[in-house]
Every structure is written in C-alpha cells, then in structure tokens.
C-alpha cells in the first residue's frame, strides 16, 4: 500500500507541502508509518491487516503519544524564539503565553480559503503531483460497483416511495463517493455512527439489498423491528450504529465509543458522519472538544453538501466552511473534494492511521452537493436553481468521474456497466418484492426493548391492548400479526 | 387513508356556531417590556374564509408582523416558507431582517429568541418538529421560564413565543410524532398552548405572541392540511387559560386538547347513540390551566375521562386527574379514566396500536358510566 505519486519528485518535499504533519511524523523513530509506507514495508491490500501491524508496533514501543509531545515542544520553541525574556510570557495554567505590545485581533478569516485536496480532475485524470493511496483494480471495481449500486438503490427506493409502498425515503445522490470511498478506507472493526445520508458505508460492509429493503418496509426481518421510519438502518454485525433522526446527537457519542476503543487498545477508531447543517448544533462543538481533550481515535467526517434542507451553507456558518473549526478545538483537519473517490479514500486512510496510531481525533470536510431533494417530503426546486442541481448532477458527478478513471486504467468497460446495472436492478426488484411480501413484525415488538426487561406497566398495557384488538379488530392493520 | 378521512370528518364536526361566537368580542390588554398597547378586536360581521390550519397560522404570523414592527419570525428553513408552509410569503412581505433562517441549532434559536424578547421585541421562534425541541430544553426550562422571577421582574422575555408542530401524522415514527407537552407543563414560568382547529390556531397564536409571558405553542401537524374551517380574516385573539366546553352533556366530562379532540368528539357522538351524554372540553392552555371549567363540568357529570397522544405515565392527564380528584372527590362516581398513548417510544409500524383511538375512548366512556 504505497503512496502513489503521479510524477516523481523529491518525496520529502512533497510530503512536507501536502501533509502538514510531516515534521511530526518524521521525528518519530522506527514506528513512523509514513516512512514505512513509503519504503513499502507495509504493503497490504487489507486496511485492517495494515493497521494491526502498525498499531502493534506503536504499542510495543510505547510511542502512542510521541507526536503529541513533539507538537508541544514545537510550540514552546516557537514562543521562546520570539520572547527571550522569561518575564515576557504569562505563566497561564493552560500553558505559557507570550506577551506582545501589539494589539492584534486575530482576523475572522485567514483571507485565503482552505484549498480542497483532490486527486482526479473532472475528467477522471490524476492531477499532476498529487499524492494518493494506490487503489488496486479489485478495490477500484468494488468501489465503483458500490457507487452504482447506491445510485440504483436510490432510484428504485425513491420510486417505491412515490408509489406509496414505503412511507419515506432519502437519497444519497451526488454523495456516492463520500459514502463508498470513506467506507473503503476503513476497517470493518471501525465503529460507524452515521447521520442518515451514508447508507453506502453499510452497503460497503456487506449489508445486503434485502436487508436495506427489509428496513424500508419495516417487516419482521428489519433489525429495527419496524419501529423506525425507512432509511434508519443499523447493523450490529457491521459495526454500524442505528440511525437516529435528531441531528448531530451521534457526534459526542462517537467520542465515547472512541474512548472505549482507546481503553481496550483496539486497532480501530470511531467514525462519525454529519452534514454541514449538523455542524451548527451544540452537539458538534461538544463532540469536537471532548474528543480533543480525551485524545480519542475518532474521525469526524462532514459531508458539506451545500444545503441543510432549504438552508444554504451561507446561512449556516460564516467561517471558511467546516474544516477551519477543527483547529480551534486542537483537532487536525483536512478539506477534500467529496466527489473525488480517490481523494476521499486517501484522506480517510491517512486520517484513520493518525487517529489510531496517535490516538487523536481528525476532522475531514468533504465538499460535495446534495443532488437530490432533501427527502421525499421535500421539493428543492422551491428554494434552489434547477441549473445548479443540473450542473452538479452532470459536470461534477462523482460516479462518472471515478468511472472515467477506472475505464482509462482498462479496468471497466461499457459491457461491465450494463451488466452491473441490470444485475443490481434485478436483485433489488426481487428484494423489494420479497420485503413487501414478508410479514410485519409481531405485535409483541411494540412492547419489547423499551427496557431490557418487561416492567408491569407495559405488561398491563399489552394485555389491555390485546383485549381492545379482540373487540375492535377493524381498527387495526390486518398485516401486523398478533 | 381511511383513518385520515375519519379525522377530517371529525374535525369538521367540531366546528359549531358556538365555537365561532366564542371568538368574537374578545378584548385584551397587552403589556410588553417596552410598550403598552390596547387592542380591541371584533369578529362579528367580518369577512371569513374556509382555510386549513397551516394557512391560519400563516395569517396569524402575517398579522403579528404587520401589527408590531418589533416582531420577528425565525427558525430553521422559515425563509422559503418552512417545511410545513406556515411561514410562506412572510420573508417577501416583511423582509429578510424580520423573517429569517437560523443555523440548524435549537438551543441557538431559543436562546436568541430569549435575548431578542428581553429587549422588548416579539420573538416568534419556530422549532421544526416538537421532537427536536430538546436541544433547547435548557434555554426554555432554566432560562425563558425563570427570566422574570430570578431578576425580581427587572427583566423578562415575555415576548417569546416558540411554535412547534407536534403529534402523530400516520408515518412519523419515533422522531416526527411525539407529543412532549407534559415536559413543559412541569415548568412554572412558561405557558403551553395547543389549538384544535384553524380558527382556534389563529386566535390563540395571536394571543400567545402578544401575551407578556414566554409561551410554547404546539401545532397539531396532522391537521395542518386536513382541518379546514371558516376563519375570520381580521385580527382577533382567543383568551389563554380559558377552557371551552365544545359539546355539552350530562353523564361524563371528557378533557383533551389539540388533534385528539376530534377523536374524542367522534367517541362522544357514538356514545350518544347508546344514550350516553358526553361533555367535551378543549383545555387549549395546558399551563396555567382552567381548572374551574373542568371542575364545574365534573360537578355536573360526576365522571371524568382525559385523553392525549403522549405516553400515559407522567402525561398531563395525570395532573388533571389528580386535581379533579382533589376538588371533586365526593362527587365522582367512578375513577377518572385516562386514554392515552402507551408507555413506549412512538412506533412506526405499530402506530395504530399505540394511538388512543376512538374505540378505546368509547370503551372507557362506557365502563366509566357503568362503573
Ligand atoms: C435536532 C434536529 N433539528 C432539526 C431536524 C430536522 N432536519 C432534518 S435534516 C435537516 C437538515 C440537515 O442538514 P445537513 O446536516 O446539512 O445534512 P444533509 O441533509 O444535507 O445531508 C434538518 C433541519 C432534525 N432532524 N434534528
Ligand atoms: Mg447538508
């Protein structure tokens, strides 16, 4: 798993330029992952296998927090450069702060927007000088197939909702690359806490079309037992916590999950997703701060898709997006082109490595666009220009871009495309048919799981409900078995 | 579908001449931190139109902004009209500085509203769903509710009104269906108001906005489109903390609020066929509530049934039951009946089982009368 340079150059220079962490990583001795990777020591197809080795190496040498210490030393050096006189600095409980005679307000912005890391240009060609993780043909084809599957799922489930067969749906149109490429960069042991527009992560982990359909239909095979609205997927075996509608609540929870992984010395991190809107909630800020202070391995992935229902990002925040918020909390952050699967993949791979090996949170802002309506309850043409949507659907399509790249590598053909599409379509229609035919969950599921046990009030209410049903069967849906 | 239809018919059945009259000739005096206004409104002889509930809310908001240059409307997605269309046209008419989107942050919305109100403005905040009001719970419970008391009445945020859609809608699952009113009824210092119909919604919302206390106003979202009623086009207000007997009867008193009233009304109609005469009361304001109207009714009927969608345990029905037992113990001929939501989270597929249906109410009416 070597870093891939599209044009040869001094590796050191490039790394220094592209990854602000080089110094820190470089100063580490043997355990330096970057070194190992560049020299090709750890070559593996499986991210899980890869990090098992690297983390083990760290734990063995007790160097988990090395880079943090190094970082602190650098800060101290910097301040003593400026102020030689000991008295010129404030001995503040949070660390020494230098005095200055300049009344300088820190600017509200750095003037220049944080650039966006990308690997592929709009035509699917790697950009000169870019650094990225090489993706094998096998992984690339799987990634592409995942993105196409997600697209087809969205089209067909959306239609299914329109026909009134399911009560609700929400697409990931335009965000297929973030969904699939971030998932591909993780290990299956990494615990995912989703917002709701990330079903591709679950798809990548092996949740079947049938399992998706079962949830949307709320039948007795739905792990959520028909209790939640469609798209509220969750799967214990896939380390994917159940979607909850309230925005941003998953974010501080992810820090807690990560703390557990840290305490258990697991070779895994927590990964949590949010929208641009989600970053306005108090929970987002609480999460970043607690994660930084607790030094936990969590990756915060923000899908900045330009809109939160009808609210454009310009009315969501006045900062340079989300990426800049990390630094204020002491969190390392990167902005990536969310419609470039290779950029997402590479940045999440690197984020994961730093999160686990250095036990620290990382913030990734992926710029993208919500091509679909917010959900089946929304008509986005009421508040945004149709040509804006069209531009992103066509010119900035992440799936098409990745396909061009795969095709230019000779890994994908038009025949593969039509075969894949018709296969998935068929499978999905079958899955939907079966999900529709499958019985609804037993009525007892209304009362179970409220608590781990069955308290008397619920027993009493269940008994009374069953009597009512006997008396008034016409009031109750006939498809819910009693 | 069938159920929606039943709801609609029930809703229309609620609209009686009596109800319309109650809207008329209501005079009120309003005092805010900076201004003293006297508004006299008369609805008799005014134009009225048949409109749905979200349009009635929209009319009230237009009037509120039009009649008070210090009124503001804000919340998530309100600029384009709101996800339920309640704020349609407001930004165009009154401008972006008075009607605006906020970032996605409920605690921010309410905290901002408190500050705005404390400066003598009418802050009309929207929380997109009652299910999402909880991030703002601290601001409402510890701040809005105690702003006046803790300062010895030096400061108040009486100009704050928080509007939020609540309740079942047929397919909302856990987080688009809840009825969290009881949490707020446990908080001295705020008012909680829930309308049952378009005409009520308009008059009550205007009263809430102009009331000198912070108010949480829950709107029955199932009725936004379904409930259609003649609503006077002019500026009128309906009194807070005044319950209304919307159906007179002699055998049992039923108390409810919001969307549940139409279900209760249907049960009353059916009970009548069995010779049971039901009195139905719309509480409208949950705190501070009009105990007297309920007491007078129960003294007459000797029986009480309370019904709400929220889980039965710790619901506001419990407070009403306890109060009536205190006041009418010797007059009661049967235990107070409660027909409410179950003690479970609000379920998707099982919604019809969870709900306090007409037949559950009817059964409870009969068993209470035959106790
Ligand atoms: C606490 C809370 N407030 C409001 C909502 C209603 N709501 C659902 S999605 C959404 C917008 C979210 O936007 P963003 O985070 O950008 O995610 P996107 O939908 O763009 O993926 C809102 C306001 C909610 N679900 N939870
Ligand atoms: Mg968004």
Automatic annotation (TrEMBL), chain A:
UniProt-recorded name of the protein: 3-methyl-2-oxobutanoate dehydrogenase (2-methylpropanoyl-transferring)
An example GO CC term for this entry is: mitochondrial matrix
According to its UniProt entry, this protein's organism is: Cinchona calisaya
User: Where is this protein localized, as stated in its record?
Assistant: Mitochondrion matrix
Q: Name the Gene Ontology molecular function terms of this record.
A: branched-chain 2-oxo acid dehydrogenase activity; metal ion binding
Q: Which reaction does it catalyse?
A: N(6)-[(R)-lipoyl]-L-lysyl-[protein] + 3-methyl-2-oxobutanoate + H(+) = N(6)-[(R)-S(8)-2-methylpropanoyldihydrolipoyl]-L-lysyl-[protein] + CO2
Give the signal peptide range: none
Q: Which domain of life is it from?
A: Eukaryota
Assembly, in brief, is: Heterotetramer of alpha and beta chains.
Q: Which UniProt keywords apply?
A: Metal-binding, Mitochondrion, Oxidoreductase, Potassium, Transit peptide
A GO BP entry is: branched-chain amino acid catabolic process
Q: What class of enzyme is it?
A: oxidoreductase
Q: Does the keyword Transcription apply?
A: no
Fetch the PANTHER family from UniProt: 2-OXOISOVALERATE DEHYDROGENASE SUBUNIT ALPHA, MITOCHONDRIAL
| Cofactor(s) this protein requires | thiamine diphosphate
Any idea of its EC number? Answer: 1.2.4.4
**Annotated ranges, domain Dehydrogenase E1 component:** 147-441
Q: Which family does it belong to?
A: Belongs to the BCKDHA family.
State the Pfam families in the record.
E1_dh
TrEMBL record, chain B:
Coiled-coil positions: none
Residues annotated as domain Transketolase-like pyrimidine-binding: 51-226
Top EC class, one word: oxidoreductase
Q: Which GO terms describe its biological process?
A: branched-chain amino acid catabolic process
InterPro entries attached here?
THDP-binding, Transketo_C/PFOR_II, Transketolase-like_Pyr-bd, Transketolase_C
Q: What reaction gets catalysed by this protein?
A: N(6)-[(R)-lipoyl]-L-lysyl-[protein] + 3-methyl-2-oxobutanoate + H(+) = N(6)-[(R)-S(8)-2-methylpropanoyldihydrolipoyl]-L-lysyl-[protein] + CO2
GO molecular-function term, one example from the UniProt record:
branched-chain 2-oxo acid dehydrogenase activity
Give GO cellular component annotations, separated by semicolons: mitochondrial matrix
**Cofactor(s) this protein requires:** thiamine diphosphate
Q: Keywords in UniProt for this one? A: Mitochondrion, Oxidoreductase, Transit peptide
One Pfam family, short name please?
Transketolase_C
Q: What is known about its subunit structure?
A: Heterotetramer of alpha and beta chains.
Q: What is this protein called?
A: 3-methyl-2-oxobutanoate dehydrogenase (2-methylpropanoyl-transferring)
Q: Which organism is it from?
A: Cinchona calisaya
């Amino acid at each position: 798993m070597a870093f891939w340079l599209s044009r040869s150059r001094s590796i050191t220079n490039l790394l220094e330029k592209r990854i602000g962490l080089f110094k820190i990583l470089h100063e580490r001795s043997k355990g330096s992952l970057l070194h190992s990777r560049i020299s090709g020591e750890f070559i593996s197809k499986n991210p899980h296998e890869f990090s098992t080795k690297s983390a083990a190496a760290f734990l063995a040498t007790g160097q988990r927090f090395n880079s943090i210490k190094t970082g602190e030393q650098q800060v101290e050096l910097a301040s003593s450069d400026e102020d030689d006189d000991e008295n010129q600095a404030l001995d503040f409980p949070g660390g020494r702060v230098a005095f200055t005679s300049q009344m300088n307000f820190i600017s509200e912005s750095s003037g220049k927007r944080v650039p966006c890391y990308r690997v592929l240009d709009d035509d699917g060609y790697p950009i000169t000088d870019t650094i990225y993780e090489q993706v094998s043909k096998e992984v690339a084809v799987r990634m592409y197939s995942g993105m196409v599957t997600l697209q087809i799922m969205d089209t067909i489930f959306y239609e299914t909702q329109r026909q009134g067969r399911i009560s609700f749906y929400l697409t990931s149109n335009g965000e297929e690359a973030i969904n699939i490429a971030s998932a591909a960069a993780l290990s299956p042991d990494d615990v995912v806490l989703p917002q709701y527009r990330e079903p591709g992560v679950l798809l990548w982990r092996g949740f079947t079309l049938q399992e998706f359909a079962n949830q949307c239909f709320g039948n007795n095979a739905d792990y959520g037992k028909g209790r939640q609205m469609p798209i509220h997927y969750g799967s214990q075996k896939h380390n994917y916590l159940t979607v909850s509608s309230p925005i941003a609540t998953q974010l501080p929870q992810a820090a807690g999950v990560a703390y557990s992984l840290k305490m258990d010395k697991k070779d895994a991190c927590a990964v949590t997703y949010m929208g641009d809107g989600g970053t306005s909630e108090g929970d987002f800020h609480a999460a970043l701060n607690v994660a930084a202070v607790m030094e936990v391995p969590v990756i915060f992935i923000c899908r900045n898709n330009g809109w939160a229902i009808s609210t454009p990002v310009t009315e969501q925040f006045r900062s340079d997006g989300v990426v800049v918020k990390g630094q204020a909390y002491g969190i390392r952050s990167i902005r990536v082109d969310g419609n470039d699967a290779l950029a997402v993949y590479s940045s999440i791979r690197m984020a994961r490595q730093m999160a686990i090996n250095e036990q620290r949170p990382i913030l990734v802002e992926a710029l993208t666009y919500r091509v679909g309506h917010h959900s089946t309850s929304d008509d986005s043409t009421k508040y945004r220009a149709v040509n804006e949507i069209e531009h992103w659907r066509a010119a900035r399509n992440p799936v098409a871009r990745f396909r061009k790249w795969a095709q230019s590598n000779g890994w994908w053909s038009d025949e593969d495309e039509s075969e894949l599409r018709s296969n998935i379509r068929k499978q999905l229609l079958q899955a939907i048919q079966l999900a529709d035919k499958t019985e609804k969950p037993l009525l007892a599921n209304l009362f179970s799981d409220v608590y781990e046990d069955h308290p008397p009030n619920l027993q009493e209410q269940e008994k009374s409900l069953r009597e009512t049903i006997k008396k008034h069967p016409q009031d109750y849906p006939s498809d819910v078995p009693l | 579908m069938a159920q929606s239809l039943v709801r609609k018919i029930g809703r229309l059945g609620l609209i009686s001449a009596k109800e319309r009259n109650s809207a008329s000739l209501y005079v009120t005096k309003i005092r805010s931190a900076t201004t003293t206004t006297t508004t006299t409104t008369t609805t008799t002889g005014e134009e009225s139109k048949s409109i749905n509930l979200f349009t009635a809310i929209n009319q009230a908001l237009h009037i509120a902004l039009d009649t008070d240059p210090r009124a503001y409307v804000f919340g998530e997605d309100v600029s384009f009209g709101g996800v339920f269309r309640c704020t349609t046209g407001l930004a165009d008419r009154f401008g972006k500085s008075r009607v605006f989107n906020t970032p996605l942050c409920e605690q921010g919305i309410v905290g901002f509203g408190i500050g705005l109100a404390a400066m003598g403005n009418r802050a009309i905040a929207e929380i997109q769903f009652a299910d999402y009001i909880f991030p703002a719970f601290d601001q409402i419970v510890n701040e809005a509710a105690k702003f006046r008391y803790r300062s010895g009445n030096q400061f108040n945020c009486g100009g704050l009104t928080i509007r939020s859609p609540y309740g079942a809608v047929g397919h909302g699952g856990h987080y688009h269906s809840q009825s969290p009113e009881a949490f707020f009824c446990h908080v001295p210092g705020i008012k909680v108001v829930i309308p049952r119909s378009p005409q009520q919604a308009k008059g009550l919302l205007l009263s809430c906005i102009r009331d000198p206390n912070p108010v949480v106003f829950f709107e029955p979202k199932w009725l936004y489109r379904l409930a259609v009623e003649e609503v006077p086009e002019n500026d009128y207000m309906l009194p807070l903390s005044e319950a209304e007997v919307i159906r007179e009867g002699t055998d049992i008193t039923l108390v409810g609020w919001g969307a549940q009233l139409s279900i209760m009304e249907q049960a009353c109609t059916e009970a009548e066929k069995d010779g049971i005469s039901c009195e139905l009361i719309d509480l409208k304001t949950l705190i501070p509530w009009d105990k007297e109207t309920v007491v007078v009714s129960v003294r007459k009927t000797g029986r009480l049934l309370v019904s709400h969608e929220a889980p039965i345990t710790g619901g506001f029905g419990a407070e009403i039951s306890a109060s009536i037992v205190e006041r009418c113990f010797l007059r009661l001929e049967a235990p107070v009946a409660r027909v409410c939501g179950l003690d479970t989270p609000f379920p998707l597929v099982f919604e019809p089982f969870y709900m306090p249906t007409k037949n559950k109410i009817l059964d409870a009416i009969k068993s209470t009368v035959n106790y």
